[in-house]
Design brief:
Aldehyde Oxidoreductase, domain 4, globular, seven-stranded mixed β-sheet, six-stranded mixed β-sheet, alpha+beta, 3 domains, 29 strands, about 775 residues
Length: about 775
């Protein structure tokens, strides 16, 4: 438990007196990671975990358990189970024998933040190679013990025996339990690009027994019984409780703090101010809540104001010169193709500011002492949090330990680990452990948002109805919260080590078409806030950043063209997938499972108040392909849209755990429906108005559709990730389903009843004849 003293992995290995295995897979032995390694921090102190050492990845325990050290985190997606399967498979041990330690900066290698569907794709590959290297070293040990060539040995359930001589056998624990491998494995690159033991041959997929099976998730039993420890459940001896006092505006500063306003509340320990950072520490959580609510603070009135409306911000995105433009693709002669086209289709698509909407607000526990800083947090990047804290506090990162404890589903929110910094500042101020819990209004107002985007797209066809050109341009705000920038508390105490202007140009919505189009251009442009009027809004990555908007525009436009030509949406896509066999297979499997009936859209026959339709969308994110069919009902009188069923075809290469993958896809679909129909940050010049679940609604149980899934498993290919792709086709599939039902095009998310009624009342021209 977090409150109990525990010997660190480094100290255990340094003091255990373990026998060192002195041979090496790649050459002479090197010192164990406990004695120092190769990473150097900004203060000149080496990290002690070297990814080039096998002992940094695996430890065989005397009882036969195998500890695996992974720098990634499981943020509720089930990757701990899948990674355990991968390691158990390579080591030839029962799944139950693996003990996964994740996201602890004192015990694991830095494998980068848990983002972008990259855990199985990158960390899984790294752990597979580390486990394969470990298995080979164990076989070498056994070969030496039995004086037998390695090829005459086999492994079953962690026991190595001589083939055709079962009396000569030895377990992993007997070989090296409690001892170091002391073996150098070649590791190059960093984070996702890190190549671990690249010269070791892992198993052939045809030998898999554990990978590819639906092993039950290891975290669910304790979650279902209420015994699971989340970040908000962490308790330390002598722990105090903290709350942060927020102004109305992110740029406001405290002119005066009236401490006497909370003198009547028992249990107050301290009012903490550092720069514009203001917090209260109390002996109980209730006292901290009361104090944060009652504390009177005179806040300054900043010169910068919020945009008055979403329309005003759209105008700003439209008319402001960009500071950066990323060109995803530029092939052929796009402008010439448009000049020669028979018909041109064009449209503008709008994507709003959206919240990450964590069900549980941010929380963290910190204990700051003169010797050490310890933090318990749900960070998606524990090492990123550690490094930011080192800069904020001006100390070596070696003196900081960040321990991951799962929080609520965060979808990118906890790349900005705000609560950890809050807790550290309050703990430093009072000299005791402090638990910080954000309130719902804190989270809704102060979390960094997924940025608003404006997508314009043009497509051109020839006389035969073939698409000859595509031109997509996205405009969006940059990200203020990204790796290397100071977070909220750092800025408040004056640690502006990187400029807020203009921000990071990432996730802009530029996508590359799946279809066979000879002339294609796709650009993402980023619009800064003026330097003399910086943005009061924080922005950061939100699940599948940029891609929802980009594919919403593109797949909606594909549907518009098919409708204008009187061609079934499925057949039109199939016609333009020449040579893309993987995409064809995904599309065919999806429409088959959905029971798709071919007919040009709109296909609705009813003229009554209730109409139904189906819409199709096909996308690619990374190397993962997903198709979705949405079946929707539209009430013509109220404008209400109900999504009744979503059918998903999903190809992410090797499927490690089919049941876990399906759960991940279902979660993506549900959140995709929520973001498409309900979610939008409301704001005006005085601030953000979406402060709770009433003013920022999300999907409820009665609105959740049935979800049918077909998995296209390719065990001969690398796993390509499933944390985000399945959410991407949902907006366009729903939009296309609405058009199929009632003939109205929705180009602005979310599809609220008001917007549906407006679309029904106003026909939107979608094309023009080329001049």
């Amino acid at each position: 438990m977090p409150g109990k003293a525990a010997i660190s992995r480094r100290d255990f290995l340094r003091t255990s007196g373990a026998l060192v295995v002195s041979f090496s897979l790649f050459g002479p032995g090197v010192r164990a990671f406990a004695q120092g390694a190769t990473h150097i921090d900004p203060y000149g102190n080496p990290d002690y975990l070297d990814p080039g050492l096998l002992d940094s990845w695996l430890a065989i325990m005397p009882d036969g358990a195998i500890k695996v050290f992974c720098g990634k985190t499981d943020i509720g997606t089930g990757v701990e189970t899948a990674l355990t399967q991968i390691v158990a498979e390579e080591l030839d041990v029962p799944f139950e024998r693996i003990r996964m330690i994740m996201g602890d900066t004192a015990k694991t290698v830095d494998q980068g933040r848990t983002t972008g569907s990259g855990t199985i794709e990158s960390a899984g590959a790294q752990l597979r190679q580390a486990a394969a290297a470990g298995r080979f070293e164990l076989l070498k040990l056994a070969a030496s013990r039995f004086e037998t060539p390695i090829h005459e040995l086999e492994v079953n359930d962690g026991v190595i025996e001589v083939i055709n001589d079962s009396a000569r056998k030895i377990s992993y624990a007997e070989l090296i339990g409690g001892k170091l491998f002391h073996v150098k494995i070649i590791s190059t690159g960093v984070e996702r690009e890190m190549r671990v033991a690249p010269d070791v041959r892992a198993k052939d997929y045809r030998q898999y027994k554990i990978v590819g099976t639906s092993v039950p998730r290891v975290d669910l039993p304790s979650k279902l019984t209420g015994e699971f420890v989340y970040t908000s459940d962490v308790r330390l001896d002598g722990m105090l409780h903290g709350r942060i006092v927020r102004p109305i505006h992110v740029l406001s500063r405290p002119a005066r703090i009236h401490e006497e306003s909370i003198a009547h509340i028992p249990g107050i320990v301290k009012v903490v101010r550092e720069g514009s950072f203001v917090g209260v520490v109390a002996r109980t959580e209730w006292a901290a809540i009361q104090a944060a609510t009652a504390l009177k603070v005179d806040w300054s009135e900043p010169s910068s104001k919020m945009p008055a409306s979403r329309g005003e911000l759209d105008a700003y995105l439209e008319n402001t010169p960009v500071f950066n433009e990323d060109e995803e693709i530029n092939k052929g002669d796009v402008e010439r193709a448009f000049r020669q086209a028979d018909r041109i289709f064009e449209g503008a698509y709008h994507w709003p500011f959206q919240n990450h909407g964590m069900m549980g607000p941010s929380s963290a526990v910190a204990e700051v002492t003169p010797e050490k800083v310890k933090v318990w947090t749900g960070a998606q990047g524990p090492f990123t949090t550690r490094d930011r804290l080192a800069v904020m506090l001006g100390i070596s990162k070696r003196n900081i330990e960040v321990r991951f404890v799962e929080s609520a589903g965060c979808y990118g929110r906890l790349t900005a680990d705000d609560a950890a910094e809050d807790a550290v500042l309050l703990s430093r101020a009072v000299g005791k452990p402090v638990r910080v819990q954000w309130m719902r209004q804190d989270e809704h107002v102060w979390e960094p948002k997924g940025p608003q985007q404006l997508i314009k797209i043009r497509m051109a066809i020839d006389r035969e109805g073939g698409i000859v050109a595509s031109d997509l341009k996205s405009r969006s705000l940059p990200l203020t919260e990204f790796q290397g920038t100071p977070q909220l508390a750092e800025r408040q105490i004056g640690k502006n080590r990187a400029p807020d202007f203009p921000g990071s140009p990432r996730g802009g919505g530029a996508i590359t078409q799946l279809y066979d189009i000879s002339n294609e251009r796709s650009r993402a442009s980023y619009v800064p806030w003026p330097q003399d009027n910086p943005s009061p809004l924080r922005t950061c990555v939100l699940r599948a950043p940029g891609d929802l908007a980009g594919w919403f525009a593109s797949e909606s436009m594909i549907d518009e063209i098919a409708s204008a030509l009187g061609i079934d949406a499925f057949q039109f896509r199939l016609k333009h997938l020449r040579g893309n066999q993987q995409a064809i297979e995904v599309l065919l499997a999806t429409v088959k499972l959905s029971g798709w009936k071919e007919c040009p859209s709109p296909s609705a026959k009813s003229t009554g108040p209730q109409a139904s339709g189906r819409g199709l969308s096909l996308i690619q994110r990374g190397n993962t392909l997903v198709a979705a069919v949405a079946e929707v009902n539209v009430d013509r009188k109220s404008g209400t849209v109900a999504v009744k069923r979503i059918t998903v075809g999903h190809d992410c290469g090797l499927v490690v755990n089919p049941d876990g993958l399906k759960a991940q896809i279902e979660g993506n679909v549900i959140q995709g429906v929520s973001r498409t129909l309900f979610e939008e940050v409301n704001l005006d010049s005085s601030g953000i108005k979406s402060v709770d679940w009433e003013s920022y609604p999300v999907i409820t149980f009665r609105n959740i559709p049935d979800v049918d899934i077909v998995l296209l498993d390719h065990p001969d290919k690398p796993a390509s990730g499933a944390g985000e792709p399945a959410i991407v086709p949902i907006p366009a599939a729903i939009a296309n389903g609405i058009f199929d039902a009632v003939g109205a095009r929705l180009r602005e998310v979310p599809f609220t009843p008001e917007r549906v009624l407006r679309a029904l009342a106003n026909s939107i021209p979608t094309s023009r004849v080329a001049s």
